[in-house]
């Protein structure tokens, strides 16, 4: 509603004086302020905020009259009455100056267009020169307690119990009357008044009094603290009443008093809402209304600080000192004896208080003294609050005078020490446009206005227009899209991204030319699309477009100055609709101005009105006006495009008189046309009627009144009536829908999917929160039950003050005050900037759907709740809504002290099961709730074990993992281990590696009973096998020729750590064995199903020791049963194309297996190691020496994620590649690389055909035509580069583990003759079981058969390896007896890399044995087998340690 902004301004009085001002009183229009000190009356102007004139009493007169105490203005600003301490009323005439009527003249630069203006234009801009003249004083012979100005009279209360009525003009004896308080009968209500005073009023006088126009009576606080209301019995207007007072014992006045209140201190009345706010000594404010039936005073609500938000101060504020309603009566400001300011909305929503947070505490936590206030009042239109601080407060803070912010240019002379300048504080506010212009042309955007700027919530204009782009055309004049006529079914919702995209406001500065002559801004409106704004000040209006970023003002100043907007502004399509008063013709008019035309009356459509317009609103193509004679007029608007400029024609449709229902026209807060009906959609046969103006909503002083169209009479079908004389249906008598209503939101859009939200009526009700009047649609066109209401009013609380409602998005938008501390200027005397925080206004929003669903469930309307929730299920925060609903109900019921007879939680749980996010909602809610409430929650929603199993069935593994945490807390460890095992197995199967790693840690934690103890240090200094693996590289292009079959040792790759290395490890720990068993089982499962790619991912992601495990399984599951199907499966898994035959012949230059120097060593290195290593490494390994080729030559620390690394990663080839080879050819992982001969020079790593032995000294590339053709053919037969790297890696692993059958299969798919040659040479070794030899032989025969029939592309390769195959066939016939084989030679490349065999220590958290400390793998130490590693295979020890510190350093991953 109202929000503080910036720092308060300090206005310094230019006159030096010992006296402090203590009272400030605004004039009726709040352009002038009378400021009193003890012997001085000053008049200040509002804009600029300057002192105009001061009247200083002579010391002789001051001695006679006493010091000044209170002041009051005559309603026309022509006189001021001042009450003095000795019972005198001093009357001052306020006179305009002579010829020089202005204190200040505006000075414009030469040539400025603003010089040539009409006479009288300058008047508004400058402070007028006034003078004060004292008239004859009136002596009332008793201390004066209260002054109240009426139209022609001044009402004065004195301490002797009298009310004096003085005429402003006639001050003779005939102008004065007095009424004694004791003669006024007081009772609890007007019905029980039977004459004779019912209260003992002897010695009691009126301490404070205020007149309420709309109640026609006086709210009074008596000296004994009682509260009362005095009203004339026969409803005569006050002036007549006072005329008829002839004798002191007149019985014309009647009083009612409020029961049980005896500590009243002050009062302020709200004329618009007919409320009386009484301050009490207890610190709370009681707001009363008058019951129209009995005339008694009824408590409406209380304004008080709550202990929840203000625990330190809520009961220490002292008595209420002052209460001030804002000029538009929408908010009230309260201050207490102890100081501070607090702002509430009219029905008690708390907006801001300066007794807490940054207002009350410095940034170091010390408490500030609250500012104590002796007087305050609101400025024009409520943009400023003028505050007089109390004297000792001010002395302390007034010493440094450097930070003076005054809008006046005056020479400030240093004050002499004896006297000092008085100061007035001006707090600045911005307020919602709804306070004075409750117009509904756009209810989905927040529009605030300060005195010189507009704030609106808006995103990018392109987003805003996005919803109606289909029918938007650009107008030639200003380049902005015209507003299309909204189709009833097309949604104009602005979209969440626009309205919630950011926290910032779009701030639009109001045009200074318009502001100078027409301050203050009274009305502001924004159009439906949120792109155009209009403002109206004292005269005329102006509008602004966000498209062009320009203001449009009247070209003719006279036209602007001759109209005053009275009833407000609204937008209709691209027209501004204005209800205004024409000063030349002296009549009210309704005008429509086209946005794109010049702002001129020539382009306006003008309709004369018969009575003053108070309110205006637009609904579809209708305008509704509320007039001062309490009647409502409906007009239709139609766009006309016949002339050169588009115009609009306005036609009167209907007049409805409301005078019998509305006691005073000023009480109507807002008037709205809606399509809302009580029997929505049920009796409506015709669909178009759903969008028609069905009812009028009238906010009458907080009572929401609805007038529906009367459809009870004979209904005429549209076809039968001619179009021109359609008679509109009359309205039924009004019905009261709700009390205490501050704002109403409704929309004219319709949407079948969200009709619950769009047909609803949204109300903001102050401290009672919000209410929604929700339609209840019958389901499937069933006949509704006659006993069920068609609509239901549901209240709900929200934490923000609502300013706009997003109907489809189920959101409320608002704003809130935020503060920023500025403690830079600490010192003995704090300046304002340190005393007050800097205030800003932030956008806020809140979801409310969970409140409504809950309310429907409480009322057993679950079916409607379900339909409403289903219509909103697509909202991005719908899961959050569900969580909130469960959470709120759970907190309330589980923490309740008394048993709940009818708990709601089971109903809510059943309701949520209707939605797919049920499982995750429950678990998220549980994890955000304390453990003590879990039993209550799961008693309602079901056993967490069952919910866990449902998650597994639904394959929602992440949610299942959350349930596991709950099971761990609620069940014994055995149960959680059992469920964790289930989840672990499922996660392995689904390849959810992150989850698998968490599950390994979780399973270990259950077993050990503690989370993550650091692993013990191993006793030996044997380097862990993974560590060796990490710091070495695999040269995938290694030739087989340097490995002689006689030295092949299969036993050397041991399967489990033996000897001393076992000590100190927790390998025997049952948890680790249990986890190992599951991992082994999964690996076996993958190998059985020939899922090699998955096996590689599994090994790399979980640090599984593939080689050690394969060694153990070499003769069991690591067999290949069917070579052909295995080959086919690999082709499919690795996206590897089947080879094709060259068009020419099946012969190839390399088919005889001759060694050729094809490429240089460097290219080989780049192919094998660098493209592999540079894929996604953590640390770049040292480049191995090209002369020393070992099996582990190229592999450093691998990539982290084999699945997800894309070929873009493997594209970063290493800096050591040969200059001529620029980049990889293949960028797409999933596409086969089919290249040509020309690609050869562009690729460093794709060209790796049949690698043959390379001569190290060869550095030139000499390729014949035939060889080029062959290589290009090979390129066409190759799969993605990533797959190739993976296959080479797997080949290396199987070779290390001695799984020769798999080596054959991978050698076949890679078509690498060396691999086949190598394997067949190994088969001669006596260590190889005969079964394996037979298997390889039969497998190759099966492949040969398959190739001959189904896949001729393999034929050239089989021809190439014909000698080896022949050798194999021969060797099978000779049975060689196995003999003992001793590992004697250190040059065996397979033996030398023995650490890869089995006992790799995985990551500490993976728990199959703890890791050896990384720093121990020094080059001087020998591995357990006694084979020193070649020097080139190691990183330096320092690098080893660095790598070990990184999490994930154990991952061996290849992308």
| Mean pLDDT across every amino acid position | 75
How would you classify the helix and strand content by structural class?
Answer: alpha+beta
Low-pLDDT sequence parts: 236-251, 393-419, 460-494, 680-688, 718-725, 1010-1067, 1145-1260, 1375-1455
Between the first and last Cα atoms, what is the distance in angstroms? 59 Å
Silhouette: elongated
Range of helix content: 10-25%
Tell how many strands the DSSP assignment holds.
Answer: 57
- Beta content comes to 15-25%
Quickly count the helices: 35
Major beta-sheet overview: 8 strands, antiparallel
- Rg is 45 Å
Verbal overview:
The protein is of the alpha+beta class. 24% of the residues lie in helices and 23% in strands. The protein is built from 35 helices and 57 strands. The strands form 13 sheets. Strands 1, 2, 29, 30, 31, 32, 33 and 34 form an eight-stranded antiparallel sheet that branches. Helix 11 packs antiparallel against helix 12 and helix 30 packs parallel to helix 33 (1362-1373). It is elongated and about 145 Å long.
Q: Topology of this protein?
A:
Blueprint: E1 2-4, E2 9-12, E3 23-26, E4 32-36, E5 40-45, E6 51-56, H1 59-65, E7 68-73, E8 79-84, E9 88-96, E10 130-134, E11 138-139, E12 144-149, E13 153-158, E14 162-167, E15 176-180, E16 186-187, E17 206-212, E18 217-222, E19 227-232, H2 238-244, E20 253-257, E21 264-270, E22 275-280, E23 285-290, E24 297-303, E25 320-325, E26 331-336, E27 339-345, E28 350-353, H3 357-360, E29 373-378, E30 384-389, H4 391-397, E31 423-432, E32 447-449, E33 453-456, H5 461-465, H6 496-500, E34 506-509, H7 512-518, E35 523-526, E36 532-536, E37 542-545, E38 550-552, H8 557-561, E39 563-572, E40 575-582, E41 587-594, E42 604-608, E43 613-619, E44 622-627, E45 631-640, E46 647-657, E47 668-674, E48 695-700, E49 703-708, E50 735-738, E51 743-745, H9 755-758, E52 761-764, E53 770-775, E54 791-796, E55 801-806, E56 811-820, H10 832-835, E57 838-847, H11 849-858, H12 862-871, H13 878-894, H14 905-912, H15 918-927, H16 934-941, H17 944-953, H18 957-970, H19 973-990, H20 993-1008, H21 1025-1030, H22 1070-1088, H23 1092-1102, ...
Parallel strand pairs: 16-20
Antiparallel strand pairs: 1-31, 2-31, 3-4, 4-5, 5-6, 7-8, 8-9, 9-10, 9-11, 12-13, 13-14, 14-15, 17-18, 18-19, 19-20, 21-22, 22-23, 23-24, 25-26, 26-27, 27-28, 29-30, 30-31, 31-32, 32-33, 33-34, 35-36, 36-37, 37-38, 39-40, 40-41, 41-42, 43-44, 44-45, 45-46, 47-48, 48-49, 49-50, 51-52, 52-53, ...
